[in-house]
Amino acid sequence: MPHLGPLHRGVWAALLRQLLRPPRAVCIRAVGCHSQVAEAVLTSQVKTHQEKPNFIIKVPKGTRDLSPQQMVVREKILDKIISCFKRHGAQALDTPAFELTEMLTEKYEDSCGLMYDLKDQGGELLSLRYDLTVPFARYLAMNKLKKMKRYQVGKVWRRESPAVVQGRYREFCQCDFDIAGEFDPMIPDAECLKIVCEILSGLQLGDFFIKVNDRRLVDGMFAVCGVPESKFRTICSSMDKLDKMSWEDVKHEMVAKKGLAPEVADRVGDFVQCHGGLSLVEEMFQDPRLSQSPLALQGLGDLKLLFEYLTLFGIAEKISFDLSLARGLDYYTGVIYEAVLPPSPAQAAKETLNVGSVAAGGRYDRLVAQFDPNGHNVPCVGLSIGVERIFHLVEQKMKLSGERIRTTETQVFVATPQKNFLGERLKLIAELWDAGIKAEMLYKNNPKLLTQLHYCEKADIPLMVIIGEQEQSEGVLKLRSVASREEVTINRENLVAEIQKRLSEC
Amino acid sequence: MPHLGPLHRGVWAALLRQLLRPPRAVCIRAVGCHSQVAEAVLTSQVKTHQEKPNFIIKVPKGTRDLSPQQMVVREKILDKIISCFKRHGAQALDTPAFELTEMLTEKYEDSCGLMYDLKDQGGELLSLRYDLTVPFARYLAMNKLKKMKRYQVGKVWRRESPAVVQGRYREFCQCDFDIAGEFDPMIPDAECLKIVCEILSGLQLGDFFIKVNDRRLVDGMFAVCGVPESKFRTICSSMDKLDKMSWEDVKHEMVAKKGLAPEVADRVGDFVQCHGGLSLVEEMFQDPRLSQSPLALQGLGDLKLLFEYLTLFGIAEKISFDLSLARGLDYYTGVIYEAVLPPSPAQAAKETLNVGSVAAGGRYDRLVAQFDPNGHNVPCVGLSIGVERIFHLVEQKMKLSGERIRTTETQVFVATPQKNFLGERLKLIAELWDAGIKAEMLYKNNPKLLTQLHYCEKADIPLMVIIGEQEQSEGVLKLRSVASREEVTINRENLVAEIQKRLSEC
After folding, report:
1. Which ipTM was obtained for this model?
2. A375: helix, strand or coil
3. CA of A446, closest CA in chain B: separation in Å?
4. How far away is chain B from the Cα of A271, in angstroms, using its nearest Cα?
5. Considering chain A, what percentage of its residues have pLDDT values greater than 70?
6. Taking the model in full, what pTM does it have?
7. Contact A408/B373, CB-based, under 8 Å?
8. Which CA distances in Å does A373 have to A134, A147, A270, B14?
């Protein structure tokens, strides 16, 4: 297309591809995206150096890059989480990013449509993992493991509508801790809740509490309220929206969309608006309706035991027994929980800071059996920390505090005030690297001293080694503290020892 | 299907799905897989507790789980690599696992077919990343960055035929370090080679060397040999196989498959069988054929400068100038390199240990411009460490040495010799966790003391805290060293302080 002028051919091809694709494939920020593309096509013929069109070069919808600043924050958060998992004796595990599609299907209520499938390119049918729990259960069954306490940190993918402001993404990182094995009731479950408390306290995110409920109690409650068994799961998923919607709206969904009788919905409503502590558990034990359901009584019995252990752990006041908690995922069978940060008054005003649930989990006693053709089972309980939401909070907090983040760890900068010292600088810096010292220099034959000083100040590098004609002739070097601007002269051969001494002092 | 007997319905569904699918979607290990499936169907009616069929529960072809033991090895390797990257002043970056397909296409010669595409589920067309270099270039262009020294560690995916024995996978981890920006020639390039040397020495993988060449020299050499320009890339990729195939076989490919004239191939052969050090670079400078190509002379000039810097870094003896090195990826424009572990005589005998290239990289000066509609450019040079191959070597080495790997870091185990001490154990362990001490206990109401002792020995936990009736009545605890079996009595209130003292002593 030579008549199109100075615009790069590849750009034309890309623009045309964009025009030929359905609108939602390209629009993320644009309101009238077709006209924007058309405009770009038109103006690009006029403006040779137009702005790079941001609908061409972008990351996929719902994903993001993490910049070096963000990576520092991310690493700090992950370090805290992982060291807590290790404190509780967990082993590390890694599984592939994708699984055979059939390993994942039927594990997630209402969620199959949210899975990223890989294109059939000949071979197996694959999907990106939706969480780290199902791959863990697959791992246990595949290796016939009857017991394991493991953690796993990794990305998972869900094709949800991204509400990026709230810290929700289509690609996000999860940190999971799970205990698999046949044990006495509620001891591992209590440890999971202890871990959530330790992590959320350790990250200093402010006040938090953990909603707790039991799937058997939910099912028992549905039964005694008269919810038909075929509707249990779908009513569950409506109920799960109670933290985002009012009871009226949830009831409307149950009745109008899911065909529940209004009086049944009202009976459910009586229960799900209850929350409290151990005393509510005991009160529910006395409830004449729930007493009819052995399933509900089992759930209540375990919850009572759980509260006993949580009291011994000193975290009972962080726990709220909440009959509305259902958890969307289909595989839970017993205790379920979800940690929530209540918005502070200041946060409530700025809606963006309300991130909702930051950790969740529960007991899934029948998932491993789904992978074992003999139905051999391994009961499991676990938790998942939602890193993106925590990241969002910590990032906001750091922005507000104006805290400066160092994105490198460089300790020493090798500089020269004169020309023709590249060779000396290369020899010096190699000596530092070989001694394990973190060092940088400018990639210039003859950099200006001021440029080198600025680099150190900008990157917060604490020490400078300076070599010039005078130093070379005397067999010495200058060691400069960037902050205090003090300089001392040291013998060339003492370089590494002197620097190690200085670094151990700071 | 009630007449089918005790076999789980889900298993039947899975078996039927397998039977209905084309064979290559399910068979990986089986030779006659249809008959195996049929046999499984038949025998499952007879044997209720048959072995779990391994074609049903598996990970996708070319991928693997990393067990806790493997994760310990993996983490050690990654720690060494990342600390080297940080020693050289690199910042961390993370990018999504997938990119818009159009961001990746035309970046990899001959490799598009090896990309994992995501299914078009409505929305953008996406592909899993093939390396970390192209996403880095996309990041630079998208954020209009003119300079950056970054590292990135992450998985990449390639649909290659997996030869799992040699440590080749379809999902694998790469560790990349790159320097982007306009600098004086060969200084960042030399640092990249220094980094490869530091990492491979640090990992103690035995002897290694790094092949170095220059893409301009390759192109110049092709031109003076009479290779038609349209065949440069395809002849390049044949040449790249010289480390796996003999020159005769490579020549045959060039002539028979790629249509090169035999005398042209012979001229290429004269060059590509040369390798040596700086002296070979200087010899090539005198070569009357190469002197005709300004491109070749540019490459040779940079290689000479590179050798000068590598000598100052003290690593010149690790470098082999090798005219056969081409590197498959299309984006390289200047210096290219590849680190190789030569098989020791013992390894050569056991073919599985020959893992070939363990690190590679080069200069790619025009990749960023491909993402910028104005063609604004950022020259880059970088390297990539192939973790899987290194992992394979380290794992083999550890197996041979019989070294025992601890997969947890637990410091203290809380035990009791008597019944009814669960409450006390829970209180004690919470105190330890809250003090940051890594602690475990058994999830049993009344575990046997012997079981508890065995657990500690098996998991190499160094310390035990023991509480029983006598200790409780006296307000004391027993602290036992698992290795020496020595026990001391400490005051209950000194628990944390005593343990911290003990742990700081070991």
Report:
1. 0.86
2. coil
3. 9
4. 32
5. 84
6. 0.87
7. no
8. 16, 19, 41, 10
